[in-house]
Amino acid sequence: MTDSTAAAPDFDVAIVGAGPVGLALANWLLRDTDWRIALFDARDPEAAARDPRALALSHGSRVLLQEIGGWPARATPITHIHVSQRGHFGQAHIRREDYDVPALGHVVQYGDLSAALNAALAAQMRQRPDRLTRYDHTPVERVEQLPRADGTVAPARVRALREGRHPLAIETEVVIQAEGGLFDDARRQAGSLAHARRRDYGQTAIVAHVRCSAPLEGWAWERFTPEGPLALLPQDDAQGPGYALVWCCSPGEARRRAGLPDDAFLAELGTAFGDRMGRFTHASARHTFALGLHAQRVPVDRRVAAIGNAAQTIHPVAGQGFNLGLRDAFEMARALRDGATPAALARFARERTFDRAVTIGLTDLLPRAFAVPGCTFGHLRGAALTLLECLPPLKHGLARQMMFGQRR
């Protein structure tokens, strides 16, 4: 992998970021290859296990996670997806029984998924203790790619701070960046790729956990409003049925609504969503984050590649972000089986082009198309939803994209 006069690097693969996408990649590589792997994370596994955020996992993602023993014990199934737009006709229904799957997807807690993947990785490390080195509490400062005299690129160098204080440098054949962030993160991960497609949607998402008086088991709702999409995903807990809320609106409205007393917030949510599940009765603390698109046009630069949110941060409409990132990790593991080389990374980039383009394009189009004001556009969108409902092949194609993407 290096020229015969050069010392072998410390590792074959360095993974920067031990969130669910980075952990999944580490599990696949440890299971399927003999590479020496370094796994960096700024946090520790215990902190990740306490993260309460909700993730929507497609059926295809469940299949991939179960394959490596990373499926969490707590997961709420989605059996029915209802899509509509506020103030106009037209709706579409996607039902589990139409596709011969146990569920269209599941909603899990980020911390539960991280804990399951960490447990799976720990079990593999006990069997192969010399193949993977973890660097927890070790933020990466930068990744260096230095050219050789013959024009090739020497093994990459990762510079980090152990425990946030002690300098550390390792050399590796390839670096996989799996540590992403939100659209408005000012700090971009060290060594990130330079050429990105970027769009600010002018929307902010309010996220919370809510309860209602007449929940419908297994139903997920995507309701488009002039302000932005409003999604309710079934997420049960010890107190009973509940929903993960993602409510997209203008930044000013998001700040105002997030700061409302619970009763006032629930009343406005009821007005926006309607009474299909009775009245809303409880809301957790609200959090907000800005929404936008930030996607690497080519997620590979010589010995460095990006997957998951490091490669693309997309709109949460249809809940596709993590599922796309997990498919990145799966295909990266496949590409690296034959060699931890720049050629393998280039092959990964080629093979991910179509799936990334379709998923990014769909999640970029939907929030903008449904935000165009006016009755004429509302009627056109209603006609499109009606057409989707009445043409099973069209709906099947959309459902398959949501469950599996364009994975080969």
How would you describe the overall organization of this protein?
With 408 residues, the chain is an alpha+beta fold. The protein has 2 domains: 11-74 and 106-198 and 294-370, FAD/NAD(P)-binding domain; 202-290, D-Amino Acid Oxidase, subunit A, domain 2 (D-Amino Acid Oxidase, Chain A, domain 2). It is 34% helix and 30% strand. It is built from 10 helices and 20 strands. The strands form 3 sheets. Strands 5, 6, 12, 13, 14, 15, 16, 17 and 20 form a 9-stranded mixed β-sheet that branches. Strands 1, 2, 8, 9, 10, 11, 18 and 19 form an 8-stranded mixed β-sheet that branches. Helix 7 (321-336) runs antiparallel to helix 8 (342-369). The relative contact order is 0.17.
Topology record:
Layout: E1 11-16, H1 20-32, E2 37-40, H2 45-49, E3 54-58, H3 59-67, E4 76-78, E5 80-85, E6 91-95, E7 105-109, H4 110-127, E8 132-135, E9 140-144, E10 156-162, E11 166-177, E12 196-212, E13 219-225, E14 228-234, E15 243-249, H5 251-258, H6 262-273, E16 280-283, E17 287-296, E18 300-301, E19 304-306, E20 312-313, H7 321-336, H8 342-369, H9 375-390, H10 392-404
Parallel strand pairs: 1-2, 1-11, 2-8, 5-13, 11-19
Antiparallel strand pairs: 3-7, 4-7, 5-6, 9-10, 10-11, 12-15, 12-16, 12-17, 13-14, 14-15, 17-20, 18-19
DSSP helix fraction: 25-40%
Shape, principal axes of CA atoms: globular
What is the makeup of the main sheet? 9 strands, mixed
Mean model confidence by pLDDT: 92
What's the CATH H-level superfamily name of the largest domain? FAD/NAD(P)-binding domain
* Count of beta strands: 20
> First CA to last CA: what distance?
28 Å
